Amino acid sequence: MSPSEVIGFAPGGEETVTIYERSQSGRRAFVPPPLDVPETPLSELIPASERRAEPPALPEVSEPEIVRHFNNLSKKNFDLDTGFYPLGSCTMKHNPKVNERVAALAGHARLHPAQEAKYAQGALELMFRLQGALAEVAGLPHVSLQPSAGSHGELAGLLLTRAYHDDRGDKRTKVLTPDTAHGTNPATVRMAGYEVVKVGTAEDGGVDLDDLRAKADEEVACLMLTNPNTLGLFDRNITEIARIVHEVGATLYYDGANLNAVMGISRPGDMGFDIVHYNLHKTFSQPHGGGGPGSGPIAVSDRIEPYLPRPQIVEVDSGNGAAPVYDLDFVRPKSIGRLRGFQGNFGVFVRSYAYICSLGGDGLREASDMAVLNANYLRARLAEPGLAEHLPIAFDRACMHEFVVSGTGAKRNLGVKTLDIAKRLLDHRVHPPTVYFPLLVDEAMLIEPTETEPKERLDGFVDALRAVLEEAAEDPQIAQGAPYTTPVRRLDEAGAARRPVVRQPPAGQEPPGDPDDARQVTTGKV
Amino acid sequence: MAAEQTYPDDLLYHDEHDWARLEGEEGTFGITWFAQDSLGEVVFFDPPEVGTTISKDQPYAEVESVKAVSDVVAPMSGEIVAVNEALGDEPAAVNDDPYGEGWMVRVRLTDPTERDQLLDARAYEKLVQES
User: Fold this and answer.
1) What is the CATH number of the domain that holds A209?
2) Which of A408, A437, A493 sits opposite B41 (nearest CB)?
3) How many domains, in total, are found in chain A?
4) At residue A435, what are phi and psi to the nearest 5 degrees?
5) Enclosing domain of residue A215
6) Distance from CA of B108 to the nearest CA of A (A)
7) What pLDDT does residue A14 have?
8) Residue A64: which of A28, A33, A32, A31 has the closest Cα?
9) In chain A, which residue's Cα lies nearest the Cα of B130?
10) Is pLDDT of A518 > 70?
11) Does A110 have pLDDT greater than 60?
């Protein structure tokens, strides 16, 4: 199969190819004017050891073809600006357009990351103020903006935990994660060199306290917890959980994936958490999905502060009543070090700061209130006859910003699985909820409407679900074969997992056919 | 093409959706039709090494499907005498033929009386229908 066959056709659209396949030798989008200054040979500017032997294989395409290429691609995408996107755990809220306007200001967009601190005072002040706002939301005083994704924030949190214990001469080997945790939690534990110990879930959907007591001992470095958890349930025993964890000398880590439920209402720091990560791309409205850019800042308590990544942004009083200046503090002897080059994804900071400023403290609280209200409205509507018997609510109590239904009823009664329902929803112009997560609910569907959806959209989603289920009662094969109206139909997920081809072969070469070859491609230089 | 739902009479079943075929002092283990159907298409099978001791009710291997990575639980205790190497190349055999080509390990049983705690096909099928 050629790559274009794999990618397929959009209904009524152009064949989908990559920009490299559109390349024609010698074609240009821009021709620079003749040089009006003396030319300096490249060899005088860059030493031979740093120069490449051959020019890079960049696509050569004219401007109209570039515009058409990306415009057509964008039309094949399903995104938040196209329709409802209740992807649980991902907080696909509307990203206000004012954020884009602010981020595009030349002083933000064109600032070079290597600029010296004294010439980047505005940027540093923005980051410092963003840190302050985030600290207030978390109820923890010290923030680092360096981690560039939620998972990166998790790793930072466990490296901080390790540094904290090591500094006290305390060797610990295990980290506890509930069985409702995001998969990144146990992965982070392993990456940080700890052993994963799973903690069970009680009848009410919270942490099983007896299991926690049994597993919390002096070997435990940390408990990683998401509250509200991935079932959308606030753990009412959080102060007792914090007490148990702290009693054995471990740290308590807050996975901020679900922070959108509690902004301005309850603060992780007040619940007893030592370390928090935020997902700016979820809670604070950075456009996301498809790989970034993300941002996963962390906030910590006083006892963890000495180990924060360096450099830290500091505000220095310039005396004589003049405005303070901002600087980067590299002198942090106990720091876990740098987590990335430069200071982070600055454009995300600008958008999140704009979001926080435009909503204000009361607005953030209202956003969380609405997120919880919308989720509970949907939960109540899905309890209606015709829906509840096929998609029962997994833990039927008031939820926070998201909730889980189980497709076991639909599977048994109608012969369609959660996956089939999800695929058929695409034909109703709805992005499906998260499916098959959390793992402890069979045929799970995790629904998070977010605060930015009006009631009509929520009702439209219920109508779409009802239509899918009623149709399946007549003929399950329709859902089993869905989707029908998308640029691609069912994807070969097993093939993608077993034989990932992540690099297009150079022009004139066939894509690898042998699975072993394909796997080599994934480790090759991209 | 995925297999039809069946639970053969000659097998014994563990409530974690594993089956055992007993032949003298040895048993062959795998996962049931229900288990593979719940997992979705299997993309990797991570077998234990021959010689490993496994315990009833404890995980002895991992399967990865397009949905998740799951533990495979031992229906009985024993020592691994063979693993199904073919699943390395064709893990989807677990979906296509869960009781045949999709077998996972062969085990020398250390406590054959454990069979009394397993379910027969009818009891297991009832369990599946109620879940």
Assistant:
1) 3.40.640.10
2) A493
3) 2
4) -120, 150
5) 122-355
6) 30
7) 61
8) A28
9) A412
10) no
11) yes
A508 part of a folded domain: no
Q: Helix, strand or coil for residue B69?
A: strand
CA dist., res. A226 & res. A258, Å (int): 7
Angle between helices A184-191 and A150-167 (to 10 degrees): 40
CB contact under 8 A, A408 and B92: no
Give the domain-ending residue among A49, A78, A107: A78
Query: Under an 8 Å CB criterion, which residues of A touch B?
Result: 408, 419, 436-437, 439, 442, 493-494, 497-498
Answer yes or no: do B44 and A497 touch at CB < 8 A: yes
B66 vs A498: CB contact, 8 Å cut-off?
no
User: Considering the domain boundaries, does residue A161 fall inside one?
Assistant: yes
Segment A32-88, tens digit of pLDDT:
999 999 999 998 999 999 999 888 888 999 999 999 999 998 888 888 999 999 999
Q: Do A439 and B41 touch (CB under 8 A)?
A: no
Same-domain check for residues A137 and A251: yes
The DSSP secondary-structure symbol of A524 reads S
Q: Which residue in chain A has the smallest CA separation from B45?
A: A498
CB contacts of A437 in chain B (<8 Å) are: 68
Partner-chain contact B41 A494, CB within 8 Å: yes
Q: Is ipTM strictly over 0.85? A: no
- What is the predicted pLDDT for the residue at A17? 87
Say whether both A232 and A142 belong to one domain: yes
- Give the mean pLDDT of A233-246: 97
**Confidence at A507, pLDDT banded by 50, 70, 90:** low
Q: Indicate the domain borders of chain B.
A: 15-126
Q: Count Cα neighbours of A135 within 13 Å in the Cβ-side half-sphere.
A: 16
Cα(A343)–Cα(A352) distance, rounded to whole angstroms? Answer: 15
Cβ B131–A408 below 8 Å, yes or no?
Answer: yes
Q: What angle do CA A391, A396, A400 make, to 5 degrees?
A: 105
Pairing of strands A174-178, A220-225: parallel
CA angle, residues A484, A487, A491, in degrees to nearest 5: 75
Residues A152 and A299 in one domain: yes
| Count of beta carbons in the 10 Å neighbourhood of residue A496 | 14
Query: How far, in Å, CA of A394 to CA of A22, rounded?
Result: 49
Tell me which of A294, A325, A355 is where a domain ends. A355
> A181 lies in a domain?
yes
User: Could you tell me which CATH number the domain at B15-126 has?
Assistant: 2.40.50.100
Average predicted confidence (pLDDT) for chain A: 92
A461 domain-assigned: no
Same domain, A63 and A145: no
Across the interface, whether the CB atoms of A497 and B40 are under 8 A apart is answered no
Phi/psi of residue A411, nearest 5 degrees: -65, -45
Could you read off the pLDDT of A162-217 as tens digits, one per residue? 999 999 999 999 999 999 999 999 999 999 999 999 999 999 999 999 999 999 99
Residue of B nearest to A500 (CA): B43
Q: What is the pLDDT of residue A5?
A: 41
Nearest CA of chain A to the CA of B66: how many Å? 6
Q: Which of these ranges, A204-208, A467-471, B64-68, has the smallest mean pLDDT? A: B64-68
CB nearest to A436's CB, from B44, B67, B92: B67
Measured in angstroms, the CA of B67 and the nearest CA of chain A are apart by: 7
Q: Do A330 and A217 fall into the same domain? A: yes
Contacts of B41 in chain A (CB under 8 A): 493-494
Q: Could B38 and A442 be called an inter-chain contact, meaning their C-beta atoms sit closer than 8 Å? A: yes
